[in-house]
Structure formats: structure tokens, C-alpha cells
Amino acid sequence: MADLATAIAATRVSDGKLALFWLGGAGFVFRTAAGRTVAIDPYLSDSLDHYYSWKRLPLSPIALPARALQADLVLATHAHEDHLDPETIPDLVAAGQALIAGPGMCTSAMRAWGVPEERMAEINRGERRTLAGFDVAAVLAHHVSPAGAQTPDAVGFVVDLDGIIVYHTGDTLYHPDLQAVRARRPHVLLVCINGQYGNMNPEEAARLTSEIEPAVVIPMHWGLVAENTAEPGAFVRALAATGSRARPVVMLPGDTFISSFAAS
Ligand SMILES: [Zn+2]
Q1: What is the mean pLDDT of the chain?
Q2: How far apart, in whole angstroms, are the C-alpha atoms of residue 170 and residue 195?
Q3: Which SS3 state, helix, strand or coil, does residue 37 take?
């Protein structure tokens, strides 16, 4: 990952394939068969250190400078710093052309940061819209901290990336209503496993995976800061115990994964 931005821009995949780049935490970049670039929850700064003194683990250096990420669409699941980063988004807006989209809590935060209206779009839970040419659905995320603090309009995303359906859970506890996404037959599930601060633990993430039955599942929201991580092997073992046919792929921050999927 000497220069992840260059690698992303240079990546070409054929029809029926998708390239995924994990930025650590909940952050992913995708390159599609049509040569388009989408990011979800890019966290490309040290703002968690600045706000909470949560330092990045050595495993998770800043994957690339925000100014180097040229995306067509950036989706944010909610307005916590590791998902809609006040030190990443303004640089993305200044240096690129991406449309930045998320629920109302995200657009109001971006408005306060001075992001121009024409660069942002609001998509709330239950809505399905075409954004920058992509079919995007915002789905339930039940993001409630143990202390009972609600993040009422946190969402997950189901996005059609030139024929590959990706479901990013966002930050969420297990909830039976999350199973509704199964009807979309996602090829790829990106599932949070950190088990703290209102998120599923590895066993709960494995249960949801077995209910969604994607072709590939990638455990995420770990490895970024010591205060909020989990062990991906625990997810892989829990998934095996469910009998799920989903293939677990454990990525490391900065890794690239290219998969091909049979047409559905
Ligand atoms: Zn989070």
C-alpha cells in the first residue's frame, strides 16, 4: 500500500467483478467494472485521536491522503467521526468531484462544515435513490449504545456497484429486521464485529451473515483503535458454527480484494 490512491485509480476489473480496498474501521473504496469509484465511511485522518485520544493501531496507518481519493460517490452511514470524518470530508470535497451522501445527520454536519449543497445528497432510512448513477438504498441500522444513547438516523447501505450488490451494515446492533436485506441477494456483506458502542459482536455478526447468506462476507470495524476492536478469527469461527455457506474473507487495513461473482 505504498500508494493506495494510485493503485485504486489504476485498478481495472471486468464485468461481474468488483475490487474492494479496506481503509480500516468501516471504510471501504470500491472500483467497479465500469471503472467508477465509490467509497463508504472513509476515515483518513487522526480525528479520533484529536477528539478522544484514541490512537490508530500500527496495523491501521492512514491509508491514503483524503485529497488523493478521487471518487464518484462517497456514502456516510452516520455522523460519528470514524464514519463521517470532519478532517476527511472537507479535503475530499476540495480535491475531487465526489457527491457525498448520507442521512440527515450527515448532510446537516456537512452544511456546518461549508460543503456546497451541489456536492451533497440526503438519503434517509427506507429510501432508495439513484446517486451519481448508482442505485443506493439506505436501510435500518439499530445503533444504540449500552448507555441507551440512540443514533436515530444511522443507516446501512445496499448499493449496486455496476452489477455487484454490496451491503454495508454501518454501525448496528443485531436486529431481526436487518434480515430484510436478504431479499436483495447481496453478493458482498461488510459486517461490523467490534461488539461495543452499539455494534454487533462476532457471534451476532455471524448470525446476521447466516440469515443474509451473501456469497462473500468481510468482517469490519476492527483494527483501527485499541479501545474499539475485535478479533476477526472469532467471527470466522462463529460463522463456521452457523453452517452458513458465505465465504469469509479477512482483510487487513490497506488490503485489496478482487472477487468475481456469478451473475444473479
Ligand atoms: Zn463506528
Answers
A1: 94
A2: 13
A3: strand
* CA 192–ligand 1 middle distance (angstroms): 8
Domains annotated for the chain, with CATH where assigned, are: 4-248 (3.60.15.10)
Under the banding of pLDDT at 50, 70 and 90, the label for residue 1 is very low
pLDDT at 244: 97
Residue 262 has pLDDT above 90, yes or no: no
Strand order in the sheet with 128-131: 128-131, 134-140, 155-161, 164-168, 188-192, 216-220, 247-248
Distance 175 CA to ligand 1 centre (A): 17
Distance 79 CA to ligand 1 centre (A): 9
Written as nine digits, the cell of 182 is 436478504
Do 205 and 232 form a contact (C-beta atoms < 8 A)? no
152 Cα to the center of ligand 1, angstroms: 14
**Distance from Cα 221 to the centre of ligand 1, integer Å:** 7
**131: three-class secondary structure by DSSP:** strand
Task: Convert the pLDDT of each residue in 212-224 to its tens digit.
Answer: 999 999 999 999 9
pTM: 0.96
Please check the confidence at residue 264 and state whether its pLDDT lies above 80.
no
Phi-psi region of 171 (alpha: psi -120 to 50; beta: other; left: phi over 0): beta
Grid cell of 195 as nine digits: 461488539
SS3 for 93? Answer: helix
Q: 124: buried, middle or exposed (CB in 10 Å: 19+, 13-18, 0-12)?
A: middle
Is the confidence at residue 2, as pLDDT, over 90?
Answer: no
